[in-house]
Task: inverse folding
């Protein structure tokens, strides 16, 4: 009887909420003096996550000597999961050059189509994630 109960509990956890989302997008700031509204979205739709994964990997390299607008530290951690393991995790700059940072030497240039795809996938408008002003500038 005890084994049956444990087995049922295990099946319940595995089937209900025990899965890892295909993609997760979380907001943070690299400047402690700037605060942004909390943002943490998970995407369970594997096909939509795959479209964003493919778009991220297809972005062109960012030019090394370009001028960028001012950055207030708006960043996102974009993680893709496969088989309950993180398969890719990048930092997306939400302001400034708005680059996707794989590593210090591998930065990719985004465009409006990328931001529209990302916003649509997580159910928000582009203005809700791209060039968001810190709380201190919205008062």
Result:
């Amino acid at each position: 009887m005890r084994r049956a109960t444990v087995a049922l509990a295990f099946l319940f956890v595995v089937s209900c909420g025990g899965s890892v989302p295909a993609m997760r997008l979380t907001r943070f700031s690299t400047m402690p003096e700037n605060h942004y509204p909390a943002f943490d979205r998970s995407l369970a739709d594997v096909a939509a996550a795959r479209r964003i994964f493919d778009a991220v990997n297809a972005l062109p390299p960012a030019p090394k000597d370009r001028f960028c607008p001012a950055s207030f530290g708006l960043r996102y951690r974009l993680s893709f999961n496969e088989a309950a393991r993180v398969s890719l995790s990048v930092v997306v700059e939400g302001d400034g050059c708005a680059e996707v940072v794989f590593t210090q030497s591998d930065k990719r240039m985004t465009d409006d189509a990328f931001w529209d795809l990302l916003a649509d996938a997580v159910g928000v408008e582009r203005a809700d994630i791209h060039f968001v002003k810190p709380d201190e500038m919205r008062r």
